[in-house]
Amino acid sequence: MAAGRLAGSAWRRAVSLSGRCCPPGGRRERGGSSSSTTALGKTLDNSEVTQEEIVLPRKKTWDKLAVLQTLASTVKRDPTAAHYMFYDDPYLMPRNAANSRLFALAKESGRNAAKYMVKQFPQYFDKTLAEPNVACLMPDTLTPQIEGVSEEALKERIYLRRVKESVDLFDQLVQAGTSVSLETTNSLLDLLCFYGDGESSLEEEKEQKEDLEEPGVNTSEQKAPRRQFQRGSQSFSSRWRENNNAERIFKIMPERNAHSYCTMIRGMVKHGVSAKAYDMYIDLLNERHKADVHTFNVLITAVPFLKDRFLERWELAKVFLNHMVQQGVQPNLLTFNALLKTLRRCGGVGRSMSPLVIKEMEALDIEPSLATYDHLLTIFYRGGDLSSSGIISEVLDDVERRSFTPQDPDDANFFATAMQVCCDLKDIKLAYRLNRAMEKGDNWKFLDMDRLNAYWSKFFSLLCMMEQIDTVLKWYKEMSTSLFYPSPKNILDLLQALDAANHLEVIPSVWEDMKQLGFNRRQDLLEEVLSLMSREQHPEEIQLAFAKCAEDIKAVHEQTGREQVPLEWTGSALGRVAVLFSRAGRTQDAWNMMERFQKINRIPTDQVMDEFLTCAKQTSCPDEAIKLVKLATSLGLPAAQRLKSRTEKEFELSEKQKETLESIRPDSDSDSDSDSDRE
Question: What is the pLDDT of residues 20-50, one digit of tens each?
Fold first, then answer.
């Protein structure tokens, strides 16, 4: 290293003294004319070479996180660990998707509560002494420092985002006859349009609730006007009230510029009053102002709420595009994304026009973002339409070559949308390509907790449908709990894949995962597990494991608690548990399940009866066989006589047992009653 630095400094001194250098291995001519050849084959005189300026490369600057990023690249994901956002504590780790969402919301709620306390009670957080005192780590000052009624105080409150205080101070300045500059007023409009004129007061919400719940009035008749969707409004409950502070301040402004109009337009579109935003845009044109690109972007996104017909929406979007050309506004990536987002709600018009939008982006050298591809896939595959199967392949060709950075809020939707398309197409190769693209670079950061779970859930369902069982189990082991929490549908898909591949010996381990995920009370999953385990006879070791699962299921049905209602036994579940106990040689447990048929007024199937009789024979329990015959007779089953004959032939009965078996006959009284009824 030291030798390299010395050589470099010597080279720089030589260059600075001579102003020129010799080619490697060459020598400098003292006189005469000579020539040298360049890499392109051109011949230059030495006089030209001596005048060439040598530019030394700049020093390489490293990112502050370069070392940490390099170390992080050497660490692989632990498939047994939970998501990094959760605490590394078994008690605090979520068990399923619902718990993970609850824990994530709890953490965010805690942060919001801390911010609220600091904002509402700043006097208790004024101790900023620290050793060492690092300024960037100290809390921000949230208390206004400028007292009095002045424009500077107004600017400070706008900077601190105090909506109500800013409006009150502005009104005081206006009432005092003090003029507020256009720049400050526009900043106040920006604040009001962003926050929607602040939150509505608790008193107003209470009054609205009392109006809706007024006794003696038909509630449905009052709610109907509120729920009625009007053209130009994106939501049923808009936070943009009539004649709010933003509109009031805008009207009393002595001077308005393009910024004032554009702010109002963006605020109206954001808070669900697109019709007012369009009227404001017409006023902007009448005042001979020009809108900026961000205003045109929000207007294009508001087109579906201004027009009903698909063709009318496209025509209005073209009007805005033509206005951009006339006003000399250069479109950006968000402009084309907004246009594609509008085309998503234009039906067949969107399918025919979206390729032209992509070509226009290429002509302007604008690289698509993930949101662009998300809108494109939604346009062509909306509602499960699979006629355009080549679109996603072309999209993946572009996505695989790039590592994306966030440029649009809708970028985060791409991977989940694309995986859904792969599932609809049932194309596992496309899913593998998409997964490789997701893991490339920092693309995985686009998936938050909810989208991550949805993405992997769809991917796993496709694996269960299309892949070999060994591959499915390998992915299941690597994905489960560390990447996603299997949903009930994923468990059902896995059970069906095990059934198709005849790998039912894995069911006990899947049952343990079901208990961990909290799915052991799902009736549909319990029925599927019992059906698969009781379908065929398996080796003794597997039957013992199945009987252990059946015992857990029996305990689940009998489990009671303060917040748990015991599950009701179905005839099929009861019979399958009895079969599993019988095949494992647990005669007494099987008989306990048989007795439950009378309690729930259900009739066991012939398979259940035969399995129990076989179990009684293997364990040499003729008394249990006689009990079975009595049960079948009391229930009036047609198989009672057949079971009685099997018991006589297959069991070694004592004289007393034979007499007991012979005495078991259908109730003659009931027969005579039925005969008299027929007469």
Answer: 344 434 444 444 444 443 333 344 444 444 5
Residue 5: the pLDDT is: 39
Cα distances from 472 to residues 157, 168, 454, 493, 652, in angstroms, run 58, 63, 18, 11, 50
Number of domains comprising the chain? 2
d(CA 10, CA 14): 6
Q: Which residues of 471-485 are buried (b: 16+ CB within 10 A; e: fewer)?
A: ebbebbeebbbbbbb
CATH number at residue 248: 1.25.40.10
Task: Report DSSP letters for 445-485, one per residue.
Answer: GG--HHHHHHHHHHHHHHHHHHS-HHHHHHHHHHHBTTTB-
189 part of a folded domain: yes
How is 262-310 classified by DSSP, letter by letter?
A: HHHHHHHHHTT-HHHHHHHHHHHHHTT----HHHHHHHHHTGGGT-SSH
Angle at the Cα of 355 from the Cα atoms of 352 and 357, rounded to 5 degrees: 110
Question: Does 152 reside within a domain?
Answer: yes
Q: How many residues does the chain have?
A: 679
Please report, for residues 122, 154, 232, 247, 626, the alpha-carbon distance to residue 173 in angstroms, rounded to integers and kept in the order given.
Answer: 26, 9, 35, 18, 99
Helix runs in 93-181, H state only: 97-120, 151-159, 163-175
Examine the fold and report which residue of 252, 269, 287 is the final residue of a domain before the chain moves on: 287
Inside any domain, residue 253: yes
Which amino acid makes up residue 625?
A: A
Q: Which residues are CB-contacts of 663 (< 8 A; sequence separation ≥ 6)?
A: none
pLDDT tens-place string over residues 610-622: 888 888 888 788 8
DSSP 54: P
Q: Is the pLDDT of residue 92 over 50?
A: yes
User: CA dist 51 to 15, 27, 48, 467, Å?
Assistant: 12, 17, 5, 68
**Cβ(345)–Cβ(304) under 8 Å?**
yes
Read out DSSP for 374-439? Answer: HHHHHHHHGGG--S-THHHHHHHHHHTT------SGGGGGHHHHHHHHHHHHT-HHHHHHHHHHHH
Q: Which two tokens stand for residue 345?
A: 């709600």
**CA nearest to 347, candidates 310, 302, 309, 389:** 310
Q: Is the pLDDT of residue 470 over 80?
A: yes
Radius of gyration of the chain (CA): 38
What is the three-class DSSP state of 648?
A: helix
Asked if residue 122 has pLDDT above 80, the reply is no
Q: How far apart are CA 652 and CA 669, in angstroms?
A: 32
What was the pLDDT predicted at 222?
Answer: 37
CA distance 8 to 424: 61
Q: Which of 256, 119, 96 is nearest to 189 (CA)?
A: 256
Structural contact between residues 173 and 151, judged by C-beta atoms closer than 8 angstroms:
yes
**Six token digits for residue 197:** 């004129």
- Which residues, 6+ apart, have CB-to-CB distance to 198 below 8 Å? 163, 164, 192, 245
Which H/E stretch holds residue 615?
helix 606-618
- Cα 456 to Cα 404: distance, rounded to the nearest angstrom: 20
Per residue in 556-566, pLDDT (tens digit) is 888 776 666 77
Q: Does residue 652 fall inside a structural domain?
A: yes
Domain that holds residue 169: 144-200+234-287
pLDDT of res. 95: 83
Average of per-residue pLDDT across 390-406: 90
Would you tell me how many other CB atoms lie within 10 Å of the CB of residue 193?
23
> Among 254, 272, 287, where does a domain finish?
287
- Look at the alpha carbons of 280, 286, 289, 295 in this order and tell me if their dihedral is positive or negative: positive
Instruction: State how far the alpha carbon of 631 is from the alpha carbons of 106, 223, 575, 598, 658, in Å.
Output: 55, 59, 14, 9, 17
Region of 665 on the Ramachandran plot (φ > 0 left; ψ -120 to 50 alpha; else beta): beta
Rounded to 10 degrees, what is the CA torsion of 401, 403, 409, 411? 40
